């Protein structure tokens, strides 16, 4: 079957689906499934905009609300993960996944589903070591800390995914697995994004948690976004035993969704021709959720997952074939995910803007039904209980947050010794902007919805590329020329992106800024924001 993969959508659903329609008109190709690798921005109304961690100037309504209201329907089944620029309050309603609109499915904090026999997994958010070992404690209305920590990956989600034994066909993460750049055309990557060099050379670019999952799951395909650049790699895995067949992963990172950007890719994936066209639960994943349910944590307390170190009576939560069979029996062998989408918030009305609409903590009926069916803990219900009992922490109690240093890192131990949120205490290339966006007062920030009618896009798109059957990429720079040929080979229908001059930015420097307490962004994020300014 044909699978379309998109990078950061940034709420531009109309443009994304129009690009697919253009692809069909030009090449008579239509995907069976669309995957989006984060920054989807399922924004329903002005309150959702307030829960998105970006500066006010980037808060635009875009077009998702039309699909949420039913005005439009996604023309192809769309499955997505969360990134670091999301309506976190909306996605938080669906920690185990669910429909955000008809035909648009969110995988949850972490999840695995099946479509036509293809097993698709993903993990939402980005890695930050200072939040990695905490529970999912955040709830709206968020403060300046929780609006960011809400989308930070937690160790429990990685732990759950590491219990899987059956093969994964496709996996998605928003940030890249750390070290993946060593398995592709690193020289070309650094030519396009020279400000990655320090992190690439120190091997701190990307997520160590995602890298851990890549090594464990060894999926056939791994798709990412986040860094707003297209990059392909090929990773050959070592066999765990003599009896195990060698496995390899084809990695692809996509650019963001903008005209004349390489943000969308079509690949052919082997599938079960006898399988139905419905999105389905994955029985092993459901069994893992049931097995790990006792580990659910909704506090800020840092804790480690069970491991074989003599401190835990149980450390292996992988499931048996019998447990998987029990899940199938519970569902009467019908794994079809019910189409039970429900509106849980008012939808944006361009004729009646509500700029002062405040977010509220909502328990979604989809999550309630899912948890009741499989005997799982509703994380949001647990948070609300903690709040009512006076034992909750964070924004729910308006307690004082932990002291954060200028890089956003709380001073606590982590199982990962490097946090890529800050490489040095001072960087002359940094600008006065928080590394993950938005330092303004959340209670008074302006809301600037986009006009009701989005811009029309010409038929001169160069956003589309049909992936060749082989993504053979060398493992080192010695074969860079072969990698460059990959970009030109196969069924490519893509005109390569034209280089644009980066907009000059004001930089801060000097001793007067060293102790100012102003949060900064890394050089690579600085360039990402600059590119967004240019595009606007």
Strand and helix layout:
Elements: E1 2-6, H1 13-27, E2 33-36, H2 46-50, H3 64-69, E3 78-80, H4 88-92, E4 98-101, E5 104-106, E6 110-115, E7 118-123, H5 129-132, H6 146-149, H7 155-161, E8 170-173, H8 186-192, H9 197-201, H10 208-217, E9 221-224, E10 231-236, E11 248-253, E12 264-268, E13 279-281, H11 283-291, H12 321-330, H13 365-374, H14 379-389, E14 464-466, H15 480-488, H16 523-535
Parallel strand pairs: 1-2, 2-3, 3-5, 7-8, 8-9, 9-11, 12-14
Antiparallel strand pairs: 1-12, 4-5, 6-7, 6-13, 10-11
Helix pairs in contact: 11-12
Describe the structure.
It is built from 16 helices and 14 strands. Strands 4-5-3-2-1-12-14 form a seven-stranded mixed sheet. A seven-stranded mixed sheet has the order 10-11-9-8-7-6-13. It starts with a strand and ends with a helix. Helix content is 24%, strand content 12%. Mean pLDDT is 79; it is low at 392-441 and 443-536. The protein has one domain (2-391). 44% of the residues are buried. Belongs to the lariat debranching enzyme family.
């Amino acid at each position: 079957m044909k699978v379309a993969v998109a990078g950061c959508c940034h709420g531009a659903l109309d443009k994304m689906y129009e690009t697919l329609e253009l692809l069909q008109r030009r090449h008579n190709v239509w995907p069976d499934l669309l995957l989006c690798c984060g920054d989807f921005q399922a924004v329903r109304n002005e309150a959702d905009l307030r829960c998105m961690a970006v500066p006010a100037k980037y808060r635009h309504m875009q077009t998702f609300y039309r699909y949420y209201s039913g005005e439009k329907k996604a023309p192809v089944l769309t499955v997505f993960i969360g990134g670091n620029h999301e309506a976190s309050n909306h996605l938080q309603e669906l920690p185990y996944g669910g429909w955000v609109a008809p035909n648009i499915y969110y995988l949850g904090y972490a999840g695995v589903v099946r479509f036509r026999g293809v097993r698709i997994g993903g993990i939402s958010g980005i890695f930050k070591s200072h939040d990695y070992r905490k529970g999912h404690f955040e709830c709206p209305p968020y403060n300046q800390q929780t609006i960011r920590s809400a989308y930070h990956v937690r160790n429990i989600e990685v732990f759950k995914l590491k219990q899987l034994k059956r093969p994964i066909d496709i996996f998605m993460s928003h940030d890249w697995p750390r070290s993946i750049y060593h398995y592709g055309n690193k020289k070309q990557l650094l030519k396009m994004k020279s400000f990655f060099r320090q992190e690439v050379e120190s091997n701190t670019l990307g997520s160590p948690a995602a890298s851990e999952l890549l090594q464990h799951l060894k999926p056939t395909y791994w798709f990412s976004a986040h860094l707003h650049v297209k990059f392909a790699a090929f990773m050959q895995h070592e066999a765990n035993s003599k009896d195990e067949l060698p496995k390899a992963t084809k990695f692809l990172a996509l650019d963001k969704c903008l005209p004349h950007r390489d943000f969308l890719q079509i690949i052919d994936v082997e599938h079960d021709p006898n399988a139905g066209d419905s999105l389905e639960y994955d029985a092993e994943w459901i069994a893992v959720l049931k097995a790990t349910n006792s580990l659910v944590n909704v506090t800020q307390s840092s804790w480690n997952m069970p491991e074989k170190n003599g401190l835990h009576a149980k450390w292996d939560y992988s499931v048996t074939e019998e447990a998987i069979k029990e899940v199938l029996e519970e569902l009467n062998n019908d794994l079809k995910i019910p189409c039970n989408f429900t509106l849980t918030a008012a939808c944006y009305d361009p004729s009646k803007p509500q700029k002062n609409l405040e977010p509220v903590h909502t328990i979604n009926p989809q999550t309630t039904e899912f948890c009741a069916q499989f005997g799982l803990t509703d994380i949001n219900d647990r948070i609300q209980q903690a709040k009512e009992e006076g034992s909750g922490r964070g924004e729910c109690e308006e307690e004082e947050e932990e002291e954060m240093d200028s890089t956003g890192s709380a001073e606590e131990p982590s199982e990962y010794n490097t946090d890529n949120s800050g490489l040095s205490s001072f960087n002359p290339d940094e600008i006065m902007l928080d590394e993950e966006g938005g330092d303004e007062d959340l209670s008074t920030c302006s809301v600037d919805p986009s006009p009701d009618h989005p811009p029309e896009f010409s038929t001169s798109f160069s956003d589309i590329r049909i992936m060749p059957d082989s993504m053979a990429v060398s493992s080192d720079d010695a074969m860079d020329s072969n990698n460059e040929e990959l970009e030109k080979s196969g069924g490519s229908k893509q005109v390569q992106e034209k280089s644009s001059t980066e907009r000059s930015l004001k930089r801060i420097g000097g001793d007067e800024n060293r102790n100012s307490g102003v949060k900064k962004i890394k050089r690579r994020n600085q360039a990402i924001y600059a590119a967004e300014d240019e595009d606007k």
